[in-house]
Every structure is written in structure tokens, then in C-alpha cells.
Amino acid sequence: MYVLPAAPSAPVTDRLRRLPEYGSGPSGRPLLHLGAVAALYTLLQILLVLPGTGLGWDESVYISQVDDQDPVAYFSAPRARGISYLVAPIVSFTSSTTVLRVCLAVLSGATLLAALWVWRRLLPLPVLTWGGALFAGLWVTLYYGPQAMPNLWCAFGSLAAVGCFLRCARGEDNRRILLGLGASVGVVALMRPPDAAWLVLALGAAALVVRDWRRPVLFAALASGALLGAAPWIIEAYTAYGGLFARLHQGSEIQGGMGWNIAIGDHVRALQGRMLCRPCDMAWEEPQTAVWWFALPVLAVAGLVAAVRAGRRDTAVLATVTAVVLALPYLFLMGYAAPRFLLPSYALIALPVGECVRRAFAQGPNGPRPLLLILVPALLLGGHFGVQYQVLGSVLERNYTMTGRLTEAADAMHRLGLRAPCTVTGPLAVPMAHYAGCTSLQSNGHDVNITGEGLRRLALRNEPMAVTTRNHRPPPSWARGWPSLPLRQLPGYRVYVTPDGGRPAPG
């Protein structure tokens, strides 16, 4: 880790008084600039992402935990309930997916503004504006803004936590900033406890390495925030999973076993728009989608150099180091990839990249830069955002297609007589059950919540049930005589439904 040497001349409080308060004063107008970034981010979500998008697999699981009109789906060990708590107030008064998406889009825009606002005394306004715009402009950031998924909220929490940490470490005596540090870490822990552990590891190590940052209140805020945020997950480990270590073990098994796995290539291929690359055996057919990803280290180093020259070494170094630490488990300890996993790292690395972009467009010491030196980075940025829009479009098209297919598959099951309350089991049972208004039960795979014998007993009781199969595989023996039909909307899938929908025939 990069060691920041302590200056021997003046105490922290004296140096803090000489730090410029970036964004203060009438010329800064941080609310106008950062608010414009957040507002544009929200508007793009509403215009581009919202129309026609249906709930995905994970979303249906999280929402079912708090939606009285939706049968509760099995909640596997790695999941945390933070996102369910977030959407609970919305789904308590409406079952509309569109309303849910609009509310989350507005909330994500406001949270982006709040996270950037924390940094207004640490970085110049142009750096913050560019950093926020670059992060908000990524296709993965836009796509997950209105989705009921935890990773983006971990990104906002991590961004705010590092900013609050730096302000506290510099000696800013403000109780609200200290509470903000604990709350930000708590949000990350509530959404994804492992991410919070890596975040606390990075910030705690920084506080130990830098002598002037060894303040007890910092360690207390980090520890209390992480423990309070992770408390529901820890309590649930003992009430539902057999203990903390048992839940960690189950979570590791579901995720393929945590260990040394170099997943860099998987993440590169996933940038083509693959939401979950598991197994990641897809061809790398669109290399242009990963150009920005390979450019990130170069741009971040250039931004670090620019920040050091401008006297902002601590902000750039800590943001970069924390981004790297948060990415480590997903790049080297998991055997699969999803673009959303790296959102916290992207949010933090956007700040040194913002330093680089600001430097590229800044006026030189001898006056305005030559037009060519302005046009080249402008064209590169335009090409970057064009690629992001292209990938977002392909991702949304696949979402629309899958939403339509799952809706039609649910209609097909209903035509065979399936009626709620009902159960769906087999491949794609979780999303199919959501669209059919049923609960999902699985006797194998990642979401095991019943035994094969338990399913057989349900079938023998003539409970309303649907069994899906794939690739011409036969259903369980007890379902082979049931009415069935191929799901033309999902090639290779077939569904079997209990006779008469699971209800005794009349007469």
C-alpha cells in the first residue's frame, strides 16, 4: 500500500486551515454543477432504461421478501436484505414495476449527488463534476440505477465513506461528518457485508499507515458502522443458516467456492453486456466495449500525477487504493463475473480519472491550449460514451425480450390450468414463478430449499405445481403423466402442470 509520509512541520489542524475549501464561494456553485450531473443521470434512466423493463431474477427475490402480493422466494445465504428494506416503502403501496423504477431512479440520482457533495471540500469542482459524469455515464451505472439490486448502493456508500474518512482524518471537527462515515459504511454493510469488510480493511489500513490519521474516532466509526449495518445479516445467520460460519460456508459454496481465481478475462468479456458471466465461456466479439476498462489504469495514474502536482495526493491515492482493494475479491477470488460487482471500484476510480480529464481540458500556463489538444480528448470522450450507449441498448433489448418470454411462459402455464397459490420447480423456476404468481421450490442448484422427496409429497397431494425441464430432459417420475407443452418463447424448455391445475376434477 502507498505510504503517505507525515509532514513534520505543522500539526494537522494548522495544515487543515490552509486547505482550500473547493467549491465554496459564489464562483464554485457546487450544487448547480453536481446537481446537473445527478439530474441528467436520473433523466437518462427514466428515458432510456425504464420503458418496458421487467424484474430480473435477483430483483424478484429481493422484492418478494417485502411484497405481500408476491410469494416469498427462497433467500440464499450470500444475499443481504438491505435492498429489500430500501424498496419496502415503495412496494407497500404499489405493485407497479414502473413506479418502483421511477422511485429508484430519482433516489439513485439524489444519492449520487449526496455522495459527491461529501467531496466538495476535498476536490475542485471540475474534478468532481467530471468524475461524477464519467461514473454516471457508464452503461452499468445507468442500467442498475432504477433496479432493485444492491451493488450501486454499495458504490454510493463507498464513495461517501472515503470522502467522510478523509475529512475526518484531516481533522475536520464536525460530528455530522463522523456520523456520515459510520452511516456510509453501514449502508454498504447492510447491502453487501463482504464489500463492507473490504472497505473497512482499506480505510482501517490507511488509518494505521498514516500517522496523522490514527484517530480513535475513525476506527470507532468504521467498526460501529460495519457492525450495525451487518447486524441483520449476522442475526439471520444464527436464526436461519446454522450460525455465522455456516452461512459463510454456504455462501462460498453457492458462489462456486471462494479461492484463488483469476477472473479478469471474465470481467472483460462481461463488458459486452453479459449481466452474469457464469460460466463465462462467451466469445469476445466486441473488444471495443472494453477499451475504456483497459484505459482505466493509465488514466488513473495520470490523474494521480496531476493530483500530486496540485497538492491533492491523499485524496487521489486513498480513492485509488480503496478502489483496488474493493475490486480484489471479484478479480481474483471468484470464478465468475458480473459488471455490477465492480461498481464501487468504478465510483472511486472515477475521481483520479476526473483529475486526468480536468487536466486535459485545463488552460495551459501560456494561455489556452491548441484546438487540437482539446478536440482529441473530446472525441475520445464522445467515442467512450457512444460505446456505453451501444452496450446499454443491447442489454435493454435482451431485458425486453426475456421479460416478454417469461410473461408468455407464465400465460402458457395458466392455459394448462395452473392457478395461484402454486409452486414452480425446475430450471428458471425463480423468475417463472414470479411472473406466474407462484412460489419457487428447488431440490438442487444454488437455491435448494426443499428435498426431492418433499416435492414428490407435494405432487402426491395434488398441490398446484408446474415442473420445467430443459434440453429434452424428462421430468421427475411423479410428473411424467402430467399435461405438458413446449415453451416456444423459451427454446429448449418444456413445462408440466398438475392435472386440472392441481384441483380435483368436478364430479
Account of the protein in words:
With 507 residues, the protein is mostly helical. 59% of the residues lie in helices and 4% in strands. It has helices at residues 12-18, 30-49, 57-64, 82-91, 97-117, 125-136, 139-144, 151-169, 175-191, 193-209, 216-240, 244-254, 264-270, 291-309, 313-332, 343-361, 371-415, 429-436, 452-460, and strands at residues 423-425, 439-440, 465-470, 484-486, 493-497. Strands 2-1-3-5-4 form a five-stranded mixed β-sheet, with helices on one face. The protein is globular. The termini are far apart. Mean pLDDT is 89; it is low at 1-21 and 23-27.
Index terms:
mainly alpha, five-stranded mixed beta sheet, 19 helices, 507 residues, 59% helix
Helical amount among residues, as a percent range?
55-70%
What's the mean pLDDT score?
Answer: 89
Global outline: globular
Rg calc: 25 Å
Order of helices and strands: HHHHHHHHHHHHHHHHHEHEHEEE
Low-confidence stretches: 1-21, 23-27
Query: In total, how many beta strands?
Result: 5
Q: Quickly count the helices.
A: 19
Query: Largest sheet, order of strands side by side?
Result: 2-1-3-5-4
Structural class, from helix and strand content? mainly alpha
The fraction of residues assigned to DSSP E strands is: under 5%
Q: Report how far apart the termini are.
A: 77 Å
Largest beta sheet, briefly? 5 strands, mixed
Quick overview:
The protein is mostly helical and 507 residues long. It has 19 helices and five strands.
